[in-house]
Amino acid sequence: AAPATPTASGSLESTLGSLVGTVTTTASSVLSELLQPAVARETPLRSSITVSKLIGPKGGVILIRQTGLAVVFSPGALLQETRITATANPGSAISYDFGPHGTQFHAPVAIIQNLANTEIRHELTQANNLFGGYMPDGVADMKADSVSVSELHRATTVVGRDLLGRPVLTSSTFFVSHFSGYILISGRR
Questions:
Q1: How many CB atoms lie within 10 A of CB 61?
Q2: Closest CA to 149 of 67, 69, 30
Q3: Can you give the pLDDT at residue 149?
């Protein structure tokens, strides 16, 4: 193969940037067409639960205690005080809607889900198979117990012990750079 050379319209870097952008866009479109299995709650939520809190440049935490959700904002994630809203969607899937939609973060924001009341807590083989999935259209992306996502964020899952000393999945954490709808999904098929 001949070495890459700059094109008449720009540098090698801009050509590579265009190629990477095309590959990323193609991968995102293929990913969005695949249905991913949603992680389920043992007991479905009957109705949505919404919590709202003012978070500023110093960071902070927003919790939905009833569902085991914590969203941790690092210092500098937000440049000004912003009213953050987290809504747990009704049903079995561990899915949330976060707002304001389109908010971009300047430092890490962690979404942490307690797995105590999920159907997978005893499935230790799932520890390395969990992901946060970005749902651009929110709950409209959900189909029964699966979901169409356009981004995957690898989750770090903690294995601990229950009161009887048995190993269990205790929590799963993934990081996001913007807000919209997110769901916890399993890589298993």
A1: 12
A2: 30
A3: 84
176: which residues sit within 8 A by CB, 6+ positions away?
105, 109, 111, 132, 134, 153, 182
pLDDT at 150: 84
* pTM recorded for the entire structure: 0.79
Residue 60 has φ and ψ, to the nearest 5°, of: 160, -175
Bridge partner residues of 97 (DSSP): 87, 181
**Residue 6 CA, distance from chain mean position:** 38
Per-residue burial over 118-145, b = 16 or more CB atoms within 10 Å of its CB, e = otherwise: bebbebeebbebbbbbbbeebbebbeee
Do residues 147 and 140 lie in contact, with contact meaning Cβ atoms separated by under 8 Å? Answer: no
User: Beta-carbon neighbour count of residue 167 at 10 Å?
Assistant: 13
Token pair for residue 148? 């169409």
Dist CA 101 CA 129 (whole Å) = 27
pLDDT at residue 167, as a whole number = 95
CA distance linking residue 163 with residue 186, whole number of Å: 25
Task: Pick out the chain residues at pLDDT < 50.
Answer: 1-33, 189
Peptide bond into 108 cis (omega under 30): no
